[in-house]
Structures are given as structure tokens and as C-alpha cells.
Design a protein that fits this description.
alpha+beta; 205 residues; 49% helix; 2 domains; seven-stranded mixed β-sheet; Aminopeptidase
Length: 205
């Protein structure tokens, strides 16, 4: 049991170092250090326990700062699919985008509506959709860069975008999932599965 405790702490600390999201990194690192601290106390390796107690305190401190930090969100519509920032963003994150949206490209979209989500004035997300008819919008891309995948961008995007598109007469969003991770994400945002269409989800605006 003691060895299992030590191994569990090692795995959690190692996993935390692979996290690009700082919030997740701190939480997982805190859990791993907590296990190491307990392990050190039980086996009377007090230097190990002391070092990890300090790490727990440091992680807890920075998690408190992150929890109290207020971010400024805004949206920036892109007027043209040929706009340089849009093309540069897609090119830079192309490999990661294709993990969630296999085969995505702006080419071939009839009337794409592109919107950047800005967080503290930095573009951290890109939302692309196009009308299917007068009432329905198909989401072609809903991408957030790895460092900011904490759902706060999505909640802001969908609450704000809903009003914008409703003013234009649209009533429903449709999306087809390309990965299990993205499917979990949209379910968490209130999308419901379309009966008889595997992998398709819808949400009222």
C-alpha cells in the first residue's frame, strides 16, 4: 500500500508536467505532492514530506490567485475568410485543429461566419459556422488553444453569440462531432443528440 501511494504520487506529478492548462497543472501537481507528503510522513522520510508540503502550499496559493483572477472576454468577428490573422491562426494550430475537426478547411464553405474569442485581448478561440437555411447554423469549427481550455471561453461565446445570431433570425445550432473529447465538450454545453443521426448534436439559441 505504501509503495502504491508513492507510485501514485509520482504518476500525478509526472502527468501534471504534461498539462498545458495551468489550472489543471496546479491541481494535479497539488494532488501528487499531497500523496508524496503523506507517503513521506508514513515512512518517516521527513525531508520528502517537508518538500512536498511546501509544494502543496505553493500550488494552493497559485490556485487561489487563479480562482480570483478576472479575465476580460470579447468577440472579434472576421470580415473576410482571407483575413491574414484568421489564416495565420488556422495555419499555426492546424495539427491540433484537425484532431477535433478532421478535414476542416475554410475552402468550400459557402458563407462562413468567423469569430475570434478574445481573452484579455488575446485571440484564444476561433468559431466558424455557416447557415444551413434561414433558421439553422452549422458549426464547422469551435476551437480553443490548449492553454485556455477551461470552458470559460465557451460559456462566454455561446451566451453572447446566441443573442447575435438570434437577432439575425437563426433559432438553432447544429454540429457533427469528430472526436470523443469534442463530443464530451458540447454535451457539457447543453447540446442534445439528434435522433437517428450518430454524432450529430443540436442546441437552441
Amino acid at each position: 500500500m505504501l509503495e502504491a501511494l508513492g507510485y501514485a504520487g509520482s504518476v500525478l506529478v509526472a502527468v501534471s508536467l504534461m498539462m498545458s492548462n495551468v489550472w489543471r497543472l496546479r491541481w494535479i501537481n497539488l494532488l501528487g505532492a499531497s500523496l508524496f507528503m503523506v507517503y513521506g510522513i508514513v515512512v518517516r522520510a521527513y525531508p520528502v514530506a517537508l518538500v512536498n508540503a511546501v509544494i502543496v502550499a505553493v500550488d494552493a496559493y497559485f490556485l487561489g490567485l487563479l480562482a480570483g483572477k478576472k479575465d476580460y472576454f470579447s468577440l472579434m468577428p472576421v470580415a473576410s475568410a482571407d483575413e491574414s490573422l484568421l489564416k495565420s491562426f488556422i495555419d499555426y494550430y492546424q495539427a491540433d485543429i484537425l484532431r477535433f475537426f478532421p478535414g476542416f478547411t475554410l475552402r468550400g464553405l459557402g458563407d462562413p461566419r468567423c469569430v475570434f474569442t478574445l481573452r484579455n485581448l488575446m485571440p484564444v478561440g476561433l468559431f466558424v459556422c455557416e447557415p444551413l437555411d434561414r433558421e439553422q447554423l452549422a458549426i464547422r469549427l469551435d476551437y480553443v488553444i490548449p492553454e485556455y481550455r477551461d470552458l470559460r471561453n465557451a460559456r462566454y461565446l455561446y451566451s453572447t453569440q446566441a443573442g447575435i445570431f438570434k437577432e439575425q433570425g437563426f433559432q438553432k445550432l447544429l454540429v457533427r462531432t469528430g472526436s470523443r473529447e469534442f463530443e464530451t465538450y458540447i454535451r457539457g454545453l447543453g447540446f442534445a443528440a439528434v435522433p437517428g443521426e450518430g454524432g450529430s448534436y443540436t442546441k437552441k439559441l
